[in-house]
Amino acid sequence: MSIIYGLPPLKDSDDPRILLVNRFVERALAAAAPGAFLVEYFTWMEHLPRWMSPWRRYAEDCFSRDSIMFEKLFSDTKHKIEAGDATDSVAAKLIEDQRTRNLTDKDSAWISATVYSAGAETSSGQLAWFILAMVLHPEAQERAQDEIDSVVGRDRLPTFQDYEQLPYVRALVKEVMRWRGVSPLGIPHRLCQDDWYNGHFLPKDTTCIVNSWQLNHDPDVYGPDADDFRPGRHLDESGKLMPPTPETKDESHVSYGFGRRWAVFSLSLR
Ligand code: HEM
């Protein structure tokens, strides 16, 4: 909430603002799961009138209610800016750029909401898998802690200046994300043009679901112990990071999916 709306850190996980937004994230994730609604299989159902389409009424009702909530969060930031009382945030940046980017308040409110939703559950879920991996593999935790102690010490937090000197920590992060990515079936994509894949014709508008779990656990790529948690698989004998696994945009896993923004992220890291 601080990053997106510039709010002071919320002290209570039962804060109504957190509960409301998290309920939206839960509903959005349930709706996004492949096969959540019959109409995805029987696509002729999309031509039924509204009164015969409970899924459409549900989506439209949620959209109206959620729009009110996100427009309120967004307009609160706007009022703070007008009062000269705003901190840096995604919403503040959008307000600054709104005119040049030709965005309405509703657009900007939903962009802020999307960034919150995309970043919240993914980050907390992935961190929960990280904690489990550390509980199951204390030897990996100890080695990572030793590396941080020798490179960073205990008086400050790591920064990107330390990045190159932390190969084991980076291998460990890669391995958590490969071993237990939070989105095993990625996000469904729709083809914007006809395509061919391995001799199969895929017409425009086909929904494609990527089996990220299988790609991350392929023994032909990661070896016969692909199911095990082993950060060392990303390191060579001298402890340096191995060249990245091909076709993973330098990550050695596919848990971030296949969107365009990857190029932007990796550029900003360099
Ligand atoms: C461990 C953390 C994260 C994981 C595993 C993750 C994973 C993903 C995946 C699998 C997709 C779908 C990509 C595709 O189209 O194939 C995605 C999209 C997206 N993620 Fe993340 N994400 C994470 C963190 C974040 C954070 C922190 C933010 C924002 C602050 C964010 C913002 C987005 C946005 C805006 C999209 C949609 C982009 C688009 O449609 O082009 N994600 N993410």
Describe the structure.
InterPro entries: Cyt_P450, Cyt_P450_E_grp-I, Cyt_P450_sf, Cytochrome_P450_fung. Its cofactor is heme. It comes from Hebeloma cylindrosporum. Keywords: Glycoprotein, Heme, Iron, Membrane, Metal-binding, Monooxygenase, Oxidoreductase, Transmembrane, Transmembrane helix. The chain is mainly α and 270 residues long. It folds into two domains: 1-136, no CATH class; 138-270, no CATH class. The chain is built from ten helices and four strands, in the order H-H-H-H-H-H-H-E-E-E-E-H-H-H. The strands form two sheets. A two-stranded antiparallel sheet has the order 1-4. A two-stranded antiparallel sheet has the order 2-3. A hairpin with a 2-residue loop joins strand 2 (195-197) and strand 3. The protein is globular. Residues 262-270 have low confidence and may be disordered. The chain binds protoporphyrin IX containing FE.
Helix content: 40-55%
Percent strand equals under 5%
Summarize the main sheet.
2 strands, antiparallel
The number of helical segments is 10
Q: Which ligands accompany this protein?
A: protoporphyrin IX containing FE
Radius of gyration: 22 Å
Structural class based on helices, strands and sheet pairing: mainly alpha
Give the CA-CA distance, first to last residue: 27 Å
Taking pLDDT < 50 over at least 5 consecutive residues as the criterion, the unreliable ranges are: 262-270
Q: What topology, given as strand order, has the largest sheet?
A: 1-4
Shape: globular
Membrane topology: Single-pass membrane protein
Biased composition (Basic and acidic residues): 227-239
Main location: membrane
Region (Disordered): 226-252
